[in-house]
Each structure stands twice: as structure tokens, then as C-alpha cells.
Design a protein that fits this description.
The complex is a heterotrimer of chains A (445), B (523) and C (128). Chain A is an alpha/beta fold and 445 residues long. Chain A has 13 helices and 12 strands. In chain A, the strands form 3 sheets. In chain A, strands 1-7-6-5-4-2-3 form a 7-stranded mixed sheet, with helices on both faces. In chain A, α5 runs parallel beside α11. Chain C has 128 residues and is of the alpha+beta class. Chain C starts with 7 loop residues before the first strand and ends with a helix. Classes of the chains: A alpha/beta (445), B alpha/beta (523), C alpha+beta (128).
Chain lengths: 445, 523, 128
């Protein structure tokens, strides 16, 4: 076994030093009846060549011939090879949480840069070192809002990602906090009149997508104004972070908390995980923020360096009174996003966002030619819902041609008018004009 | 005579004459390397640079014309402007300031810092896995679903349970999940109950996860042998207790040998036994929590199955349960109908499920790596992993006993906890020993945890370290103990070799600077 | 270690000093030395009620967090706001500039159950 360096002579010598007769002898503190008397029932060992053959077989049973037209919280984007090349540097890749700052300055400075990227893109003052994903970050934002306001009601837009809403419900079940859902209109935007009615003196926060699950750009300033009037926080959730290259920062539009994922930067889809969840807010909320935070300081010779800080909020010190139970987060995926954002920079991100808008416009035109109109009239970024007649049938038909056609909305919104035909589709820089044309024609049948 | 280099014989003479003596090499073979200072990304570059190659936009009509101008921006101010090579140098230099497993020994107790196989990385990057969308129809994702199905079954078998969910994103998320399942189980019986019992040796995530589930935490004192005793459990146990949370072996590296009796006491009052699987490495192929009375356990794939620690995740925290709890597991689940696999994500199929814990199906890329390691090991390799992990910890214990104080004489499994009592009169503390280890080229152990040991030094070598590495580490620990007596100030001045000396954590917390801003100053 | 004679002390290491009809409250020299560098102090607002033996705030160092327990019941009439910008004052001058709140007591007789300097010194020595 190549990962076990012990020769039989090593084992013998070490057992002698320990004073044990055999390896089994080392386990004498485990009562005999509790020990496993048989080999584990797992498949036999594989050498590296056979291992690769088996995994190629499995990978080959996944059809990834074309970039998917499904987004819905996980987006196909180009990842420059530089990202992986740097990510795989063992010093970064095989380190853990930077408990010893003097030999973790690489991880720590990169985290500080991640926090800065999150703040720049969201328009917030402070960010943590990452969360599990966009859904759990949203749930943590709701919990923070209840701590900050002392209120127990969470108002969510029905156009917030349905999985984020489900996770929120799971997290809030034991705290008995109430969730009120506000509908969206025919334009795919949150119904402001209904929001005004729902957001009251008991409301801790209002949560909306930026853009929302339907791909639509919400009237965020108006949503934030309603929340502020009720004394509640506004939480903006972003699953497609490339949009932040073309849309105004949520913090500049009145949001108090920005959450979501930066999966779109530097991270492959990987069947939906892992992804770098983010969490950012205003400076005044920092002591109620969950998760790890990196801060700048000086070493004893006065040189700038970085450490984990404000850790008294966290579980390892405050235990049951911590702001969250989160410990390990999504460090490596956050690093991938940081590297990709460094490469993109100001010009690259603007160009990437523009490309996404252009490809989405191409898709809109191609779909129109194919007779598939948008279901919602509100403005969109790179994702939109189209009426394709029978969305599930289209998905099944295109699967045979190696294309993931989109996300049929009826799975989450069965009561929507025209739900049967509603298909949520994305177009990014990976979808060439030719592929978009081919796709629209195939949808038609 | 032309001399374009400007070299003169006197230069070498000067160089020889002025040289200081070379510092001795650390026991971990550390020397002072050539390291570069490197500013923040935002402090370098020049206007107009970019490090990506993207198609030129088509131009023409504004594709975002429909978005109100007030909701748009043309560019994000403050983003860096650097070339590809500048980015490469930046992160390469940052990496050289880090200690990883690939650099050297990393005996961080309770974190199981074992070697991360490179083939697992290559396999997770196969296009069929990396480029798969989570909403791909099941017929396009049979390979991914088969892998998840097989991994679920293997994890159930390895820990001795009936069903496993892969959904939780990390160990603490697994704890949250396990407690939600326990709560749902009790609710289905008419009463969620109020309390969770947790020994004083537990990880901080245990009480935090309990609190998130609305449970009051009752702390139990462990006995003089470092174990939890049945009497302590019996005294605290009543019908308001939903569960007890135990780590076995515990954070002292000691097997909770009363586990069966404890489980009997808890079960007799209708409570459940939760296992924190952080220390599962000690038991691989040797014993199974499911055979000891545990009802639920969470794995940490980044610990036991060597998915990368990544500077702080992503982890993956599958939860295994006994059959009675299986209906409450979160969604989705993978099922096999005949020869095809599919995901169950509709609560109608699993009405008692606690629901969704995160978006999509779990940290799939970590499942690929973990399954690769399980396949490479097979049954014998897994068992040997548990045995050698325990052998390595006991070897370190034998090498260091006498030099450092062992607060518990009880047998160690995969990790051993020392403290700084023997160094007390020198004034050198656990923190100083840890920092001096850095100068020798080793990552320090976990320190000041578990909380029950004053000045704890918690060492977990893992099975992938060689006998010679452990001996060099012990040499370093002994050298530091000697140095503490002869020259305590030298130990307290450590570390001297890394790019930064001890950092001022008080300054960081009193005047937080948590992001770059133009003109940023740290004073 | 300093144990001023004019103060009364709690077993949780707070002190109280009479000032007119009110009491000034802070943490002791021993408490600050045990905590290490104080980085953050969270105090109640003026007007908040406090109850003897119950938490009225939190004091944090980089690696530890401690609740503050009221030595007396009553109402908060003054709060040492400058501590939020200069928490190090608690380390530097725990009995004067590092005071935390002033309580208008609802039952001044509660003071009698607190330790005097001599008793507190003995209590601390026992702890060490």
C-alpha cells in the first residue's frame, strides 16, 4: 500500500518500543465483543490502473458532451487552467484552517483577498472566510437577523431560489421562527404590495434574490425601502455571481446582508458541490456574523501579516452560545474563486458579464424564432424562463441528444400559470452562438 | 579591458569574510529558505491589465438595455488589474509561506492530517464528474448516482449502520443534521425533549450544534482516567434528554470503554446516542460505532478519507443511522430501481424527512475522492489504516514520555495528549513549544484542546507518516524541552524561520481590519 | 495584585464602589489578569434593569469570553462608553478608568452579601 510507509521491520521495532506484542494488542482498551471479527464488506482493493479504469467507467456514464442550458443555482463557466495549477500547490491544498498564522500566511492573505473581493462585489463592509454554500449562507443570514432585531419572522420572496427556501425552513424548524412567503408578479419580480403587507413590526429580515431564481432582476431598492420601514434587514441572495459584474452591488442598493455563492468563479459544477458560499454585511453587524474571519495585524517586528480574528463569536470558544456551529467552511473553493477573480480583474469581469448578457440575448432571440416566448416580462441577466410547451418532455428529449435543456419550473412552482411549459434556461460564455441556435431549434422539436 | 559583469576578485573575498555561521538545520530538516514579500492583489498591477482570454463581445445594441440604469454598473471599482504571470507569481509566493501536509509533518490532533492522494484529485477532475450539472436528468448522470449509491452503502458498512445520507457539507453540518434527525424522531413520538448531554472533552461544535436545534446543553465531567463513566450519565439521564453526544475515541485519544453501558442507560430512558465521527480513523476496520450502541454518527470525509483540508474545507459530513432513524434523514436520497439509479428529492416519497440541509446533493467532488480512497484500500487496507494510525500515535507517546507530562496514563488510540507541566519551572509554555516546532520544520500539534487538560499538546500523527518522521519529530520535541531548560528565552522568541514572527492577535481584534481599502494601513 | 479597601467584591470577580446613592461596577485586577488582553466589552444601555447575580454584559479577550454578573439589582444609570473604543483600559486601570456601569440599586442592602477586600483576597488566593 503506497500510502502506508511501514515495513514489517518498522512495525516490529515500533511495537517493541511501545511494549505491545501485536497491532491487535494496541486495541486492548476496546472490549473484545466490540471489535470487528471479520473484514469489512467493501469491494477489494484496486491498483492505480484499475482504479482509473473503474472511475472512467463511472464518469463515462455521465453525459457532459455539451455545456448545460440549466443554471438554477449552479452555472457552467470557463475555468482558466491557471486556477487549478495554483490551487493544486500542495502548500495551499494540503494545509488546514490557519491555526498557526506564522506558517499559514499564504492561506490567510488569500482569505483576506477573498473577503475583499466579496466586499467589492457586494458593496458590503465585511465578509467572512466562506460558508458551505448559498443556501446555508441564506439560512445563517436569517438567523443573524433574528439575533440582531430580536424578532422572529422571516419574509422571503417566492422568487428566491426554492432550495434556499427549503434549507431556510429546515434551519428554522427547531427555533420556531416563522417564514412568510411573498408572491411574484407576471414580470417575475417580487410583489411589492404583498411585501409591504407581510413586512411588519415582527419581521427580522426580508430575503430576495439578486437576480432571483427566475433570472429576473428585482427592484432591490424598493424591497430594501419596505424592509427598512418595518425595521427589518434586507438580505440579497446571489447564486450567479457573474451578474455582480453588471448589476449594482446589493450594498449600494440598500441591502444589509449579501449572501450566495461564488461557484461561478473558478469552480466546476461537480454535480452541485462543493461551492464557496459567501456572507457579507455592514460593519456594525460584524460581531453577530457567523464563521471565521481573517484580519490584518503586525508581527513583533512590525511587519504586516494576517490572523484569524474575532474568534470569540465561534463555537470553539463560545460553544453553545456561538453565532453558528460552522467550523470547516469552503476554503479551497473560495481560493479558486479568488484566483479566478484575480485573473479576471476589473476589465475581465466587466467583459465576462457583458458576454453573458450577449449570449442570453442571443438565446432570447433564437427562442423567439423557435416560437418560445419568455414567461416573465422583467429584465434578466443570463437566465430566463421560456414557454416551451411541455418542459419535462423537452428535457427528456434533449437528454437523448446530450443536452441538459434547463430546469422545468413546475418542479418547484406547480401552481404557476403556464407551469407546464416553463423552462428556466441559462446562456453563458460557454454557449457558442452555434450551440445556442442548435439548442433553440431542438427545443422546438 | 571590457568587464561587462562588473565582477572583481575582492567581491568573493568580501563575501567569504563577512559571512555569518549557518544556522543548524531543524530536526524536521527546516532551514531558512528564500521567500519573497508579496503585496495584496489590490496593491499591485496597472490600469488596463487582465489575466484572462475571453471572446471579444459582439458589440452593437446594449444587451442589458432592459435593466434600469440605477440597478447597473459598468465595472467593479477596486478590482485588481494584473497579467496572468503576475497572478501566478502572487499565489505561488503566497503558497511558499504556508506549511501543508505536502511540506512536512502536520500532527494537528483531531484533524487527521493524512496524505491527500493525488490520484483522487485527478479522478475528481474527470470531465464526467467535474462538468456535470446537478439538474442533469438521471439518465445523463447514472455514473454520479451509482458512485453516490455505492459510497452510501460502504459508509454504512464501515461504521456499522443501516443508512447513510451524503448531504451534509462538513462535520459540524453533519452534527446539525444528526441532531435534526434525532429531534424529528422524538417529535414523531410526541415530544422533542429538551436536553443533550455532552462530556467536557467534546469539540465546541457539539454544544453549538445542539443549541442550533433548540436543545439545552448539559455538560458531563469525565473521570480521572479521561473516560466518561456510566454513573455520571445515569445521574444526568432523564426523560427530557433527547441524546448524548460522544466522540469515541474521545478527544484525549482514549476509547470510551463504557460505551455499551452508557448506551444502555440512555436507551432505557428513550434517549439516543450520537457519535461524533471526527476520530473514526482510529476504528477503521477494527471496530464499528454501530456495534457499540450508537444510533447516529457523522463522518468527516476530509479527515478519515483524505479529501483535501484545503486551508479550511470544503469538508463533507455524511451521517449514518440505524434503521429506526432512516425515515428522518434529509433529502435527497439515492435509490436503485432495477439497474438504474435516481435521486429522491420529493418529500412526498419521504414524508418524515427533516428536509433539505443544503443546495443540491452534497459535496459531490469530495464523494469522488473518498470513494477513490476506499476503492484503493479495500477491506484490508482500511483495517491497516486504523491499526497503523494507532501504532504511530503510540510510538510518539513512547518516544516523548518522560520528556513531556502525560496527564492521562490510559491507553491511547489514534492520538495522544501531553501537557506543559514538566516545563512549568522554565517558564516555557505549550504555546512556546508549538512555535519552536515551527523552526524545526514541523506543524505544531493542536494546542490548548481538549479544555480538560491545562496546556494540552494533542498529537495525531496519522498512518501515512513514516517511523523516521516520527523520530525526527520526537527529536525536535526533546530538543525544545532541553532548550527550555538551557535558554528559555530562545524558545519564547520562536518562530524565527518563517516569513513572519509571532503576530499580534490583540491588535487584530481591538482594531479590526478585515478587508483591503484604498490606502489601507495597519497600525 | 491590587485589592482596594473601599470596594466590595463578588465571587465572579466584579467590584462595586459607592458613589452617592449609586454604585460603580467593574471587574477586578485579578479578573483582567486572568483574561489577558481585553479586546471587546459589551455593556447594557442606560435605563436597562439588572439583577444581582445575573449577566449584564460580556468581556472578551482574543481567546476567551466571560460574562459580567451584576453585584446588585437595580437600574443602569451610566455606562462607560469610551471602553468600546479603548477596551485596553480594563487591563490598564480596572478600578478607575476601566469601570463599566453605574447601578442605581433597588435594594442597597444587597451590598452586605458581597465580600470585603480581605475576604476577596483570601478567595483569590484560594483560587490560585
Amino acid at each position: 500500500m503506497r500510502y502506508h510507509p511501514h515495513t514489517p521491520e518498522d512495525v516490529r521495532a515500533m511495537l517493541d518500543a511501545v511494549g505491545a506484542k501485536s497491532l491487535d494488542d494496541l486495541f486492548r482498551s476496546i472490549p473484545q465483543p466490540l471489535r470487528l471479527a471479520r473484514p469489512l464488506d467493501v469491494p477489494p482493493a484496486l491498483d492505480e490502473i484499475s482504479l482509473f479504469a473503474e472511475f472512467r467507467r463511472l464518469a463515462g456514464r455521465n453525459d457532459v458532451a455539451h455545456p448545460p442550458f440549466a443554471g438554477a443555482g449552479c452555472y457552467p463557466h470557463h475555468v482558466p487552467p491557471v486556477v487549478d495549477q495554483l490551487l493544486l500547490r500542495g502548500e495551499l491544498f494540503t494545509a488546514y484552517t490557519p491555526y498557526q498564522p506564522e506558517i499559514s500566511q499564504g492561506t490567510l492573505q488569500a482569505l483576506f483577498e477573498w473577503q475583499t473581493f466579496v466586499c467589492l462585489l457586494t458593496g458590503m463592509d465585511v465578509s467572512n472566510a466562506s460558508m458551505y454554500d448559498g443556501a446555508t449562507a441564506t439560512a445563517e443570514a436569517a438567523l443573524m437577523a433574528t439575533r440582531l432585531t430580536g424578532r422572529r419572522k422571516i419574509v422571503v420572496s417566492a422568487a428566491l431560489h426554492p432550495e434556499y427556501r427549503k434549507v431556510l425552513a429546515t434551519y428554522l424548524r427547531s427555533t420556531h421562527d416563522e417564514v412568510a412567503t411573498v408572491p411574484f408578479g407576471a414580470d417575475g419580480r417580487t410583489d411589492l404590495a404583498a411585501l409591504e403587507e407581510a413586512a411588519d413590526g415582527e419581521t427580522a429580515c426580508v430575503i430576495a434574490g439578486w437576480p432571483n431564481f427566475l433570472g429576473v432582476v428585482e427592484p432591490l431598492p424598493e424591497i430594501a425601502a419596505v424592509a427598512r420601514k418595518a425595521g427589518a434587514l434586507t438580505v440579497a441572495a446571489t447564486a450567479e455571481a457573474v451578474a455582480l459584474g453588471a448589476l449594482q452591488a446589493p450594498g449600494a442598493l440598500g441591502a444589509d446582508v449579501a449572501v450566495g455563492t461564488f461557484q461561478s468563479f473558478g469552480n466546476p459544477m461537480s454535480f452541485g458541490g462543493p461551492s464557496p458560499g459567501f456572507f457579507a454585511t455592514r460593519e456594525s453587524n460584524v460581531r453577530q456574523m457567523p464563521g471565521r474571519i481573517c484580519g490584518a495585524t503586525l508581527d513583533k517586528h512590525g511587519r504586516r501579516g494576517f490572523v484569524l480574528t474575532l474568534s470569540t463569536r465561534e463555537q470553539h470558544i463560545r460553544r453553545e452560545k456561538a453565532t453558528s456551529n460552522i467550523c470547516t467552511n469552503s476554503g479551497l473553493t473560495a481560493l479558486a474563486a479568488t484566483i479566478h477573480l484575480a485573473l479576471l480583474g476589473k476589465k475581465g469581469l466587466a467583459r465576462l458579464a457583458r458576454l453573458n448578457l450577449e449570449r442570453a440575448a442571443l438565446l432570447r432571440e433564437a427562442m423567439a424564432r423557435a416560437g418560445c416566448a419568455p414567461v416573465f416580462s422583467g429584465p434578466t441577466f443570463n437566465e430566463a424562463v421560456y414557454d416551451v410547451g411541455d418542459a419535462e418532455a423537452v428535457v427528456t428529449r434533449l437528454a437523448k441528444r446530450g443536452i441538459v435543456a434547463g430546469a422545468p419550473l413546475a418542479r418547484w412552482y406547480p401552481d404557476l400559470p403556464r407551469a407546464k411549459g416553463a423552462l428556466l434556461c441559462v446562456a453563458t460564455e460557454l454557449h457558442s452562438p452555434e450551440l445556442i441556435e442548435l439548442f433553440a431549434k431542438s427545443v422546438r422539436g | 579591458m571590457a568587464n561587462p559583469t562588473g565582477w572583481k576578485p575582492s567581491m568573493e573575498k568580501d563575501a567569504k569574510g563577512g559571512g555569518a555561521a549557518l544556522e543548524p538545520t531543524g530536526a524536521g530538516l527546516a532551514t531558512r529558505g528564500l521567500a519573497h514579500e508579496e503585496p495584496l492583489l489590490f496593491e499591485r498591477g496597472s490600469t488596463g491589465r487582465s489575466g484572462v482570454s475571453l471572446p471579444a463581445p459582439a458589440g452593437g445594441a446594449d444587451p442589458a438595455a432592459a435593466i434600469p440604469a440605477a440597478l447597473r454598473r459598468d465595472a467593479v471599482e477596486g478590482l485588481p488589474e494584473i497579467s496572468e504571470l503576475e497572478a501566478i507569481r502572487h499565489f505561488t509566493r503566497l503558497s511558499s509561506w504556508n506549511h501543508g501536509i505536502d511540506t512536512g509533518f502536520y500532527p494537528l490532533g483531531s484533524c487527521t492530517m493524512k496524505y491527500n492522494p493525488k490520484s483522487s484529485e485527478a479522478l475528481a477532475r474527470l470531465a464526467g464528474f467535474a462538468n456535470l450539472h446537478p439538474l442533469a436528468p438521471a439518465e445523463m448522470a447514472q455514473g454520479a448516482l451509482e458512485l453516490m449509491w455505492r459510497l452510501e452503502r460502504a459508509l454504512s458498512e464501515i461504521a456499522g449502520f443501516d443508512a447513510t445520507t451524503l448531504s451534509p457539507a462538513a462535520g459540524a453540518h453533519g452534527e446539525l443534521c444528526g441532531l435534526m434527525v434525532i429531534r424529528a424522531y422524538h417529535v414523531a413520538r410526541g415530544n422533542p425533549r429538551k436536553k443533550v448531554l455532552i462530556p467536557d472533552t467534546a469539540h465546541g461544535t457539539n454544544p453549538a450544534s445542539s443549541a442550533l436545534n433548540g436543545y439545552e446543553v448539559v455538560q458531563l465531567a469525565s473521570g480521572p482516567d479521561g473516560r466518561l463513566h456510566p454513573e455520571a450519565v445515569a445521574a444526568a439521564m432523564d426523560e427530557d434528554v433527547a441524546a448524548i453526544m460522544l466522540t469515541n475515541p474521545n478527544t484525549l485519544g482514549i476509547f470510551e470503554s463504557h460505551i455499551q453501558e452508557i448506551a444502555r442507560i440512555v436507551h432505557a430512558k428513550g434517549g439516543l446516542v450520537y457519535g461524533d465521527g471526527a476520530n473514526m480513523n482510529a476504528l477503521l476496520g477494527v471496530a464499528r460505532p454501530g456495534d457499540m450502541g450508537f444510533d447516529v454518527i457523522q463522518y468527516n470525509l476530509h479527515k478519515t478519507f483524505a479529501t483535501p483540508h484545503g486551508g479550511g474545507g470544503p469538508g463533507s459530513g455524511p451521517v449514518a443511522v440505524k434503521a429506526a432513524l432512516a425515515p428522518f434523514l434529509p433529502l435527497p436520497a439515492v435509490v436503485k430501481d432495477g439497474e438504474t439509479y435516481r435521486l429522491v428529492s420529493d418529500p412526498k416519497e419521504r414524508p418524515q424527512s427533516v428536509g433539505r440541509l443544503r443546495e443540491f446533493w452534497g459535496n459531490f467532488a469530495m464523494f469522488v475522492r473518498a470513494w477513490a480512497l476506499i476503492r484503493e484500500y479495500g477491506p484490508e487496507g482500511l483495517a491497516q489504516t486504523g491499526r497503523l494510525a494507532v501504532l504511530n500515535a503510540n510510538y510518539v507517546r513512547a518516544l516523548l514520555r518522560g520528556t513531556y507530562h502525560l496527564p492521562y496514563e490510559t491507553d491511547s488510540l489514534h492520538e495522544v495528549v501531553f501537557d506543559d507541566a514538566q516545563q512549568k519551572e522554565t517558564g516555557v509554555t505549550t504555546m512556546d513549544v508549538a512555535k519552536r516546532l515551527i523552526d524545526h520544520g514541523f506543524h505544531p500539534p493542536t494546542i490548548y484542546f481538549p479544555l480538560v487538560v491545562h496546556g494540552a499538546i494533542m498529537i495525531e500523527p496519522t498512518e501515512t507518516e513514516s517511523k523516521e518522521t516520527l523520530e525526527r519529530f520526537a527529536d525536535a520535541m526533546r530538543a525544545i524541552a532541553e532548550e527550555a531548560k538551557a535558554d528559555p528565552e530562545a524558545v519564547k522568541a520562536a518562530p524565527t524561520r518563517p516569513i513572519r514572527a509571532r503576530l499580534d492577535e490583540t491588535r487584530a481584534a481591538r482594531k479590526p481590519v478585515l478587508r483591503w481599502r484604498p490606502g489601507m494601513k495597519v497600525e | 495584585m491590587d485589592f482596594p479597601e473601599d470596594l466590595r467584591y463578588t465571587r465572579e470577580h466584579e467590584w462595586a464602589r459607592k458613589k452617592g446613592s449609586s454604585f460603580v461596577v467593574g471587574i477586578t485586577d485579578f479578573a483582567q489578569s486572568q483574561l489577558g488582553d481585553v479586546v471587546y466589552v459589551e455593556l447594557p444601555d442606560v435605563g436597562d434593569p439588572v439583577k444581582k447575580g445575573e449577566s449584564f454584559g460580556v468581556v472578551e479577550s482574543t481567546k476567551a469570553v466571560s460574562e459580567l454578573f451584576a453585584p446588585l439589582s437595580g437600574k443602569v444609570v451610566e455606562v462607560n462608553d469610551p471602553l468600546s473604543d479603548a477596551p485596553e483600559t480594563v487591563n490598564e486601570d480596572p478600578y478607575e478608568e476601566g469601570w463599566m456601569i453605574v447601578i442605581a440599586p433597588s435594594d442597597p442592602k444587597e451590598l452586605e452579601s458581597l465580600m470585603d477586600a480581605k475576604a476577596y483576597r483570601a478567595f483569590v488566593e484560594e483560587q490560585e
